[in-house]
Amino acid sequence: MLDLGVGPSRRNVKRWRIVASGFFVACLLAGSFRNTVSSVSYSITDQRKANLSFEQYNGKYRTGGKHIYSFINDPTIHLDPNVSRPWMYDPALPQPTYKLILTDIGWNQVNVTKGLLASRSLRSRELLQGTVDHPNFDPSVRWSQIVDGTLTLNEQTQYYVFLDVETCFESNYPFYGKGFLANSDVEGGRLFTPGYSHICYDAKNCHYLFTALRTIHKYPNAILVVYNCRGLGPGPAFRKQQVTSKQLSLVAESAPGAHVNLELDQGLAPGPLNVVQLRPDELDAINSCNDTDRPFLVTFVGTPRPGPRQAMLFNMSNTRDVIYLSTRAFQDKYFFLTFHELLKKSTFGASPKGDNLYSYRFTEVLSAGAIPVVHSDDWLLPFHKRLIDWNKSCAILIPEAQVYETERILRSISKAERCRRQRNCLELYNTYFKTPQGTVRGIVESLELIHRQTT
Fold this sequence. Notes:
By secondary structure, the chain is α/β, with parallel strands linked by helices. The longest helix has 31 residues, at 10-40. The chain contains 17 helices and ten strands. Strand 8 (346-350), helix 13 (361-367) and strand 9 (371-374) form a beta-alpha-beta unit. The strands form two sheets. A five-stranded parallel beta sheet has the order 1-2-3-4-5, with helices on both faces. The chain has a five-stranded parallel beta sheet with strand order 7-6-8-9-10, with helices on both faces. The chain is 39% helix and 10% strand.
């Protein structure tokens, strides 16, 4: 008999059994409800505790109770407990030669409620998470203490300071053609603001940037990192006249080289919008130079746009191994192939400029183990030229005026050279394009090369 602390009355026992059963079912339902809710929402208080706990627990477990605090205030950004930062809790270890830190004037400000009023694109959120996941990110540095002078930066360390304010304004990723709202981060009730009405939409009006730079200029060993994902990057005067500081590094997705400082700035990798997943045997074929199942020399599927795209789609397809088709024509003629299958059967994949200088096709072609062919004059390609020399290692860069020479140029490339480029392209994709963490890694490695070269 279930002993619930009542007398032996059968009626009482039955009543309490019903109560106990109901309580048990309620607990199960509550647990299920909590699990369901936790997958789409979260408790800000609990998440702030979690952010504080990751590094604390690492320190506690490894050093016998020493707590290391995190000043990540944004409740939607999580420290990865699997990222090891032994230099934070072991005084016997040397500090890194460089560190990543985050400002706290926007999304990451101490007032969480106000922080959630600051709008953010999904691409910016990815890059922010990639920054926090970098092994040299220091979550124990509070930017506001640097601003008010209660904390000073170590003169022996190089600091890359990432701005916690929307400056990217990516309106086509990850939902192409859907605009700012669909591509806005609204987790936790974050406020949505249309990009064009944001104070930083035009970089020259972004007072957050200039405020951060004033503090940065107090430390010659600090660089402010700012993203820009607008169609033609910042205006031509922004980097040449308005912000000429050598302590600013602009990371731009679609900027002309003429609009940036080519020594200090770098390109941003287009997001992995519609990437290809290669099977292990397909990967082996590329790495062993035995990739024989690629009957197409070069392919492109997309929408017509003035310039090289229009020339390709209407004048350059030979219907055998050079395939340039609009999306509708491809679906009608090659209904037995998916877009991914077409890319996997292509040695080269065209990535001509469209409405902007860059194309998401660049990343998609890389993911398929193909070689991107770029027709986009003056596009600042991803990362810095000191990290990747695209024309020598992977991509084929053809001036727009020579678009009709594309087939001849590609056929002149030897099989051995094609194999070398394919392997390089695939390695670059896996290292720097596949994840936000990899993209941030490429940005930081570029910054390190720039810094070592200029100091």
